[in-house]
Write a structure and sequence with these properties.
- This protein has two domains: 75 residues, no CATH class; 254 residues, Rossmann fold, CATH 3.40.50.150.
- It has eleven helices and eleven strands.
- The chain is α/β, with parallel strands linked by helices and 344 residues long.
- 29% of the residues lie in helices and 23% in strands.
- Bound molecules: zinc ion.
- The site of zinc ion has 7 residues, from loops.
Length: 344
């Protein structure tokens, strides 16, 4: 995990930092104990003080994040971290089946043009920092990490192409409520800090630290996005446009895209963000029957659709279906930084 992304994190229990220059991250195999011994026993994660010697994490990998007060959060074997200590969320996490469908659909490259355009939009204007610090990108609803992976690849290319060999160096935090998604995200983006988190709760990220917040087909928390963004930062939101995959939507029971979705987006951000540029994409995708089934099961309708029924309907389709993908990439600028009340 990138240290500068870890440095932007806040402990959800005490709002303390994970970034003390000493050993906030305890190496597996070492017998070092976490700093802040008095508070360590109060950690509500149940892991208590880290006894790294008992960790199942392979040698050479970190086993826990420990805040300056000693609250400890295990790093899962797959590389993500669950910072959620309470319960009760309005979210229904995506299931393993939905996540697998999404991973397979995205791996086929159908949304690669979107991912590349998104990366260009996020990277535009992110100049190499004279201090050498990374630009922090927060991917809210990172899913399987596909779009963030493409962003990192694009950032690396930006570096290679500039005359002065300057790099648009990126560090990243990925948030998702589904641990099934994060297992894949952590594999795709090992340098990213991937956190199980509920985006509708206060984010475990320090104010003013993010250069960009990216939201691809995911819920939005405008007040918190505005708080974590740097005053010159930007919010980049991807939404499907009416008619998106309309050629297959009806056949397999996908949810339609409401015409007023864009107005709802603007309204939800009012008071926190001002609208910037928008970029609409429309391109055709050539989908196999399996692709069509995945497209149906990977989205919000996947919570309601019966997989067997979807596959039955798909079997009645032609071998391949050409459909039109329609997206809007919208950029917003924060209009003010709300003051965060201390965590109680
Ligand atoms: Zn703490």
């Amino acid at each position: 995990m990138n240290p500068s992304a870890v440095a932007a994190l806040l402990c959800p229990l005490c709002a303390g930092s994970f970034a003390a220059a000493s050993t906030p991250v305890v190496a597996a195999g070492s017998r070092t104990r976490a700093p802040g011994p008095a508070a360590a026993g109060n950690a509500s994660t149940g892991s208590g003080a880290v006894d790294a010697s008992r960790s199942a994490v392979p040698e050479g990998r970190n086993s826990a994040l420990v805040c300056e007060s000693g609250h400890s959060f295990d790093i899962a074997r797959q590389g993500y971290i669950n910072l959620l200590t309470g319960h009760g969320t309005r979210f229904i996490p995506d299931t393993a089946e939905m996540v697998a469908a999404r991973d397979e659909f995205l791996a086929a490259g159908h949304y690669l043009p979107l991912a590349r355009q998104l990366a260009d939009t996020v990277l535009a204007g992110l100049r190499p920092d004279a201090s050498g610090d990374d630009h922090l990108v927060v991917d809210a609803g990172t899913g399987t990490g596909y779009y963030l992976r493409q962003l990192h690849l694009a950032a690396d290319n930006v570096g290679g192409n500039t005359a002065d060999n300057a790099r648009a160096s990126i560090s990243s935090i990925g948030l998702d409520i589904s641990k099934f998604a994060l297992r894949r995200a952590a594999r795709a983006n090992p340098e990213t800090v991937n956190l199980v988190w509920d985006v509708w709760q206060p984010l475990p990220i320090a104010a003013g630290t993010a250069d960009a917040v990216v939201v691809v087909f995911a819920p939005r928390n405008p007040a918190e996005f505005a708080r974590i963004l740097h005053r010159d930062g930007k919010l980049v939101v991807v939404t499907p446009l009416p008619g998106h995959l309309a050629e297959i939507a009806g056949a397999v029971g996908m949810l339609g895209i409401q015409d007023d979705k864009q107005n709802a987006l603007q309204a939800s951000l009012a008071g926190f963000f001002s609208s910037g540029a928008t970029n609409d994409l429309a391109y055709t995708v050539d989908l196999s029957r399996s692709d069509v089934a995945r497209a149906a099961l990977m989205g919000p309708a996947g919570h309601h659709l019966d997989s067997a029924q979807v596959h039955e309907r798909v079997a009645a389709l032609r071998e391949r279906t050409v459909a039109t993908a329609r997206f809007r990439i919208s950029t917003f600028r924060p209009v003010r930084i709300p003051v965060r009340t201390p965590a109680s």
